[in-house]
Write a structure and sequence with these properties.
heterodimer; A: alpha/beta; Glutaredoxin; five-stranded mixed β-sheet; two-stranded antiparallel ribbon; B: twelve-stranded antiparallel barrel
Chain lengths: 177, 323
Amino acid sequence: MLFAKLKPLLILLIAFALYGCNEDLNPSDSDDRPNVQAGSVGHYVGQNSADFTILGTLGETINLADELLGHDAVVLYFTMWCPLCDTHMSSIRKSVKPLFPNVRFLVVDYVSGSTNQSRSVQFSNGYASETVIPDTEHVLLKQFDATMGSTIVINASGEILMNEDYKQSKIISVLEQ
Amino acid sequence: MNKLSLKFLFCGLLLFPLNIWAASCCGGGSASSLILPKLGTAMIDYSISYENYDGFWNTEGDHIDDPKGSDLNQYRMTLGFAYRLADRWQASIQVPYVWNKNEYTGIKSNTNGLGDSVVGFWYETFDDVKCIWKITNWKSLIPAVYVGSSLTIPTGKSAYSGEVNNSFDVTGRGSYRLDTHLFMEKTVYPWSLSLQMSYGKYLERPVNQEFGRAIEPYDKQLGDRISTSLSFGYTHFLESLSTLSFSTSISDLRERDGEIDGMKDPSVLGFKKQSFGLSASYSSPALDWIYKLSFNHALHGNGRGENFPTTDTINLGVSYVIR
């Protein structure tokens, strides 16, 4: 009797839950990556990266083309100094960098509002030895359509080989190519 | 209302430990457990909570402060409903709505959305009263034991849902999780002691997009989750037969390392969090309305957690019990 009275409420709650229907409820394994034209400039894997010139937290000038001249590849990691970012950066420092001594690893800080702020958090979080780029104007964030944990690998030809969430196994296999 | 009814209604309701799950950047917003008191037929529960982020533990267990000038918060509103299926069986559903409000010196974000919902089933191993006024023999020491199971449904927006463009939009973890629960409580008025233990297993899922961008598909399996909470409480009966209850709890939450394509990967590293809680509740004389206020504080000390944010959470809730 009481259940009959309360049934509509239960149905309402379930309907409310299902209102949030999204692809997490029934995830897909299909490969939906777009076809890109080789040699075109953009942020997708297979495209070439646009060049950029930006200052690091220590005032050093970082130019992508120059970095690619002297290295096998450039890796950009986007951080917001959160626990997950710390885990990823720790993994890069301990397990990835030693395997690829001629790859340039750059940390992009897109949440600090100034170079001083970025340098301060870089040092207090224990990343003084890394090259950190304060992306205060979100130039790189927009260029690579990035967010927290985005990892961009650009080879010596300027081609983007990876642009997705950090995964240690993935970045190692990409850099080994 | 006689004393027996009062005891039945009261038991297991007010001292149930608050199981708070944090972290907007890691996909917070999941609801806590909901248990219907023994003589209740149904219960409607509504709560609002405010969670403030205050640094994090790194993978070494050292506590790290958030960047200066940052202010990271999550607000949650949770609607719950529990219903008695049979004398010893009950079911519940909880649906949270989440607001993420994050501010750094260089970026601000205000987003909201449905969190991950929880459907639960509980079995009560007892029929008679387990809350007692006086210990008379060894049988009176037998606790009330509840055994339960719950399914967390990824109704929130995760990085893989196709609905978010950046990490600030995330309101869920994106995976189904099946938990088994054990809850034991012994009340010898006015004191109570309870223990809750849960073991959860995430279901593996395929991922073919991250933050709205299609990527090379892979399989993601989050690590198993173990949570334990011990609570100690005191109940004060007011003259009107309404009750005031206070409790304190310590909780330990751990998640094991996850896997990408069947292999361990630091991108799905496990975590640990230890926290301390205080709660107070008031129950109306008819024991149909219960008002709850709780505070949960993550212990900042080094080694009290790993790879997880440290947060303070205030929760305000009201339950209406239908007999």
